[in-house]
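Q: what sequence does this backbone want?
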């Protein structure tokens, strides 16, 4: 009887400990979420203020206005129609000359769960909707990094918080994501994809990976293709040395689970994915004959890439936007200076991504064997924030010599940022990076001197402060009209409808004709027909039916100088008759 009581007491003690442990984890997660949300809202408000002071929206006046905001408005109306009537068009004559809705628009966000939020915004607040959804995607990208950190065992708030913020506001997000909202699909889903793979490596269930695969493929198959390649690289790096302890059988079992998770996820996303892939494979843009790119990039390319590792660059450089700010350099320095055997894999991952960014041919492969572009550079941003999180955790055990080496190298990084600034017409972002490098070094040195004291870890939150200041300065330096003014080519606030040609659209809407017809306009590649809801022969979409070019190439029409752009039929009576054009609006 006594033995049974002892067993019951031990069981109750164990349960109590588990509850306390779970409560502690939940409390820690809640504190992180609150801190991250407050900091993100503050930085996002500052970014929005910089745009407002410049008199600009988040909408780039080329693809942003011609495609992304057009699709956002179309999806909003399509969702409302579906929820109220149960109808959803498979083909729409306002899209191009009558293109497949899913196949054409999935590339721009049809299928992205974040886009569904557009139905909660008023019809006349499209500029604000576009901006808020971009910020929501940035917010979720940072949370995805936090989830990945938790999955790989990095749970200290002072190391995960700066990593999450810097990833959400990385150069790829600020320049690439705001210009092209679908770029956020790469940023959001790559950390979750790797977290799903990591769970399978740790012999956990494959449900997480399957769900991520489904959402990622439904959101944007193009970035999912690149993220899958990078996730595969992560898997094989993680397996280095593991087959000796686990055996070759477990290695193939893990591969099998990953394949099954992908099949499961693809099946869940099939209703959107299959039509989109079919449209992509039959896309006219893919049929263009392209020159084979060189194996190694030019000296100019490497110069800009090197700069982007230190500061957020405004130069696209084939979309090589690799850095996260000056703290990304700190992460590299501490891990290399405080070398451990367990760091081999993260350094190998860094070197592989770096080598991939050095080769335009790799850019071609990652772009679906089309033209070379480094749109996968968000992979480097992810590697850098993970290295930063690891390095901040590592500070509590860093030895004297590695601490001195790290401090010296970080000061050298500040000098390099300053020297880069000396060559720039607008050096603000470079000079602030140099100052922040000095502040980060001071935090590093002071923490090394007091780290044995009880609350010394609080000093490490200084890295979060450095990250927040870096992000705020980057936002100002990149977009302010007093600095680089990268948003100069963005649509003016309150002017979207005028920019899209509302006057011509009003004339078109006043035509009283119940028959099918198209309206020809002055040269128009803005997809105004989709935006305002009428039919026209002009279009500008990345995914175009492959047979579209046959007629226009054979007639030598100059307005079809790109395989994905038709500015108009040049008032050629024969072509206009074939296209069903009855009216011309100017």
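A:
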């Amino acid at each position: 009887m006594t033995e049974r009581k002892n067993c019951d007491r031990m069981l109750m003690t164990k349960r109590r400990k588990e509850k306390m442990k779970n409560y502690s984890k939940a409390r820690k997660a809640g504190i992180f979420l609150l801190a991250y949300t407050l900091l993100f809202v503050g930085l996002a408000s500052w970014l929005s203020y910089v745009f407002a002071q410049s008199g600009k929206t988040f909408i780039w006046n080329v693809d942003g206005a011609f495609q992304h905001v057009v699709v956002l408005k179309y999806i909003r109306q399509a969702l409302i129609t579906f929820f109220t009537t149960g109808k959803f068009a498979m083909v729409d004559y306002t899209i191009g000359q009558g293109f497949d809705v899913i196949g054409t628009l999935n590339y721009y966000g049809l299928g992205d769960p974040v886009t569904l939020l557009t139905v909660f915004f008023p019809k006349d607040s499209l500029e604000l909707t576009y901006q808020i959804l971009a910020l929501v995607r940035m917010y979720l990208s940072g949370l995805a990094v936090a989830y990945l950190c938790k999955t790989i065992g990095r749970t200290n708030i002072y190391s995960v918080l700066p990593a999450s913020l810097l990833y959400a506001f990385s150069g790829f997000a600020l320049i690439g994501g705001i210009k092209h909202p679908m770029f956020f699909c790469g940023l959001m889903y790559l950390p979750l994809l790797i977290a799903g793979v990591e769970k399978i490596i740790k012999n956990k269930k494959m449900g997480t990976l399957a769900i991520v695969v489904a959402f990622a493929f439904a959101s944007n198959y193009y970035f999912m293709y690149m993220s899958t390649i990078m996730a595969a690289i992560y898997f094989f790096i993680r397996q280095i040395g593991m087959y000796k302890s686990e055996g070759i059988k477990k290695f193939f079992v893990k591969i099998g689970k990953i394949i099954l998770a992908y099949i499961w996820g693809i099946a869940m996303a099939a209703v959107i994915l299959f039509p989109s892939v079919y449209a992509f494979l039959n896309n006219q843009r893919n049929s263009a004959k392209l020159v084979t790119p060189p194996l190694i990039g030019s000296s100019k390319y490497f110069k800009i890439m090197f700069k982007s590792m230190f500061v957020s660059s405004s130069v696209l450089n084939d979309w090589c936007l690799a850095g996260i700010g000056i703290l990304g350099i700190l992460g590299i320095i501490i891990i290399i200076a405080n070398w451990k055997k367990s760091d081999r894999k993260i350094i190998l991952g860094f070197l592989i991504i770096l080598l991939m960014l050095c080769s335009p041919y790799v850019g071609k492969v990652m772009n679906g064997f089309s033209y070379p572009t480094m749109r996968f550079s968000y992979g480097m941003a992810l590697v850098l924030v993970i290295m930063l999180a690891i390095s901040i955790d590592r500070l509590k055990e860093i030895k004297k010599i590695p601490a001195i080496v790290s401090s010296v190298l970080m000061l050298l990084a500040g000098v390099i940022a300053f020297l880069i600034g000396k060559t720039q017409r607008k050096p603000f972002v470079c000079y602030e990076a140099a100052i922040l490098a000095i502040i980060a070094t001071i935090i590093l040195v002071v923490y090394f001197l007091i780290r044995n004291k009880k609350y010394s870890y609080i000093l490490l939150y200084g890295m979060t402060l450095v990250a927040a200041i870096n992000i705020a300065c980057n936002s100002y330096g990149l977009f302010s009209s007093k600095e680089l003014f990268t948003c100069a080519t963005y649509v003016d606030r309150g002017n979207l409808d005028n920019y899209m040609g509302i006057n011509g659209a009003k004339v078109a809407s006043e035509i009283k004709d119940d028959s099918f017809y198209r309206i020809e306009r002055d040269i128009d590649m803005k997809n105004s027909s989709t935006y305002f809801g009428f039919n026209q022969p002009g279009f500008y979409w990345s995914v175009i039916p492959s047979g579209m070019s046959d007629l226009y190439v054979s007639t030598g029409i100059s307005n079809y100088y790109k395989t994905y752009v038709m500015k108009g039929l040049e008032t050629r009576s024969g072509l206009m008759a074939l296209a069903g054009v009855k009216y011309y609006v100017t």
